[in-house]
Amino acid sequence: MDLARFERRTETEWHLEPTGPMRVPAVVFADEALLRDMDDKVGEQLCNVAALPGIVGAAYAMPDAHWGYGFPIGGVAAFDAAQGGVVSAGGVGFDISCGVRTLLTGVTAAEIEQVKAGLADALYENIPAGVGSTGEITLSGDEMDAMLAGGARWAVDRGYGLERDLARIEEGGCAEGARPDQVSEKAKKRQRREMGTLGSGNHYLEVQAVEEIYDRRAAAAFGLATGAAVVSIHCGSRGLGHQIGTDYLRDMLAEAAKAGIVLPERELACAPIDSDLGRRYLGAMRAGINCALANREIITHLARTVFARLLPKAELALLFDVSHNTCKAERHRIDGDDRIVHVHRKGATRAFGPGAADLPADLADIGQPVLIGGSMGTSSYVLVGKGESQARAFGSACHGAGRRLSRHAAVKRWKGRQVVDSLADEGILIRSPSSRGVAEEAPGAYKDAAAVVLAAERAGLASRVARLRPMVCIKG
After folding, report:
1. Fewer Cβ neighbours under 10 Å: the N or C end of the chain?
2. pTM of the predicted model as reported, rounded to 2 decimal places
3. What DSSP line would sit under 190-245, residue for residue?
4. Is 399 part of the annotated catalytic residue set?
């Protein structure tokens, strides 16, 4: 990225003032090294987002930002329906409600080491992963609609989770306003046998060791202690979410022209929030959110079943589940007024601070857990939203390490077997159905997660609570 284009406001905050069609500034949160390594396309896409109708505040990019479809991945933007604001399928992404949940095992990393190989094999055998992976659940038409309306609550009601899990999921595990009737039959058909599956790409289930604590008070509230073992699950809405994105992007291209919206690029296809198409997309997208929440709840159930067999002492209590590909109607203070705006977070995690209305009661005075995934061979992190978080980027933070190399470039540089063997030498066991998939997700293809979360902390987006080291990774 060309730093000369930006005005540096702080060590980790860089501004581009509005020019041309931009309605608001473009703001990147990153240290100098991270910003310099970003593709120029990130800045270009951020400026394009800043030109969309009804945008408020600024168009933001997180420290892990990289080029994406329309919006940069790591992009955040909020739109006010009262000012002609829009909703964009490209601003949510194709994997609707892709997110991370972390489970507290109640056992130590040392206890995991004693059964690690067998645990890796059992998790791999019981949790389907990979392109086109299918599970044992087959949904009828009525059950599909019930799942899309009910989310994680649907899964719990059918024995695939625990009632107490729901309090530790955004929106209590069910997005209100979901409209299964606005999801195409093609999308539903793609999802019919994909519940309880990880999928491919950067999705995973990891067994991790808590290796370092940064904030003892927050760690204690979250149930994290040095030497403990946790399980983190990263996946989303599978084929259904991708099809929703595909269906509505096509329709939004036509709608934008009818509404007189000048698109900086086709990939930013959108519709006014209060239009018929805008409302239909929001209903379908919320159904996609519920699909992802139900999917992660079922995978949790499968993981609990494996742990119960190999480590009967383990509990796998849910710490938190947070999505990072969504558009949500939220109340934020803008220009001195409290307003309801539709916040797009694409590859960005909600990071609400203490006192936020929808936090669980026992976390209300601490803040929201912010779960940041690393790569197969690098640390993941638990952060916490702080008081100032909500005033910055609409209460958003980074979501992971962020890609440094494309998948194509990664495959040219690494072989899957090479990556698996190298990580095994470090004590990290990889199980995956795809050697190519492992190569695409090689740790070297990603940015330094430690630098990303430190930049997020210094920018006031969220602060570090704990660092997690991978032990076992089930990779799609």
Report:
1. N
2. 0.97
3. HHTT-TT---STT-EEEEEEEEEES-HHHHHHHT--TTEEEEEEEE--HHHHHHHH
4. yes
